[in-house]
Amino acid sequence: MTLFAHWQHVNFALNKIETNMRVFVTGASGFVGSAIVKELSGNGHEVLGLVRSEKSAELLAAAGATPLLGDVNDPEILRRGIEASDAVIHTAFNHDFSQFKASCEADRKVIEIMGEALAGSGKPLVVTTGMGLLRYDRPVTEDDILNVKSDVIPRAATDEAANAIAAQGVDVYLVRLPPSVHGAGDHGFVPMIIGITKEKGESAYIGDGNNPWPAVHRSDAAALYRLVVEKRPALKVLHAVAEEGIPFREIATAIGTGLDLPVESKTGEAATAHFGWFEHFAAIGCVASSIQTREALGWQPAAPGLLTDIATAGYLTAS
Are 35 and 184 in contact (CB under 8 A)? Predict the structure, then answer.
């Protein structure tokens, strides 16, 4: 598809969308975003997906969605997508950890622009944030608020921006994703751990390895996003959590067993030497509940769990 033909197609689609609901999805070609596109399309909704490349636009069109080619940081592109849709799901985020703070501040700006475009429309906005930002000596619930600022933890910028536009009357939902959103094609934290394991020749965890990671399969997460825009529940913070907390030691053991490599505990300098910049994430400990989310949406996760996926979903053989 040429760029000119693409824009002709987009202009037509923006002016004539006739299905049950029109949902604008940012990050539509991403790991989570593409699952949401499939889930929405499979349930009778029209999807307008924001993508950055011609190749992604072609893949999105093949999946039955309408591609909108552009950058999520472009205010005009965002307004265009929002004006053409009945609901917005925001999953786009730059996961280049070498410029993490800048990426978080860019996400703040995107949400602020979305808030301006949505003001007075009554359309819902679903914003994606992280579960690992909240840590207590008990399961984190949907009632818990983030009590740390973005100058301490940069990722809090997303929550701060969502809360700010909600205070201005925009109908905002926060979906908290756990450290592992897993499934075939995952390029997130678990593949990073596997890459470190292959490089070091051993699988590792920190200390006793009892720090828990919540997890969810991406197809279950996608169903949650769909249910939010369909039901628009009174609950404004939702937890995409299928497994409340898997000890990191068990994740490391599943990886070591699958790769036939030793599994070792690391502490101090040895942990830093093994994990490098990833040490912070390897030490995350968070148990999270999704009871309120399940009750509000009737959401029932049904896909395989994380340890099963590590063994069967191609994680260990991916390059």
Answer: no
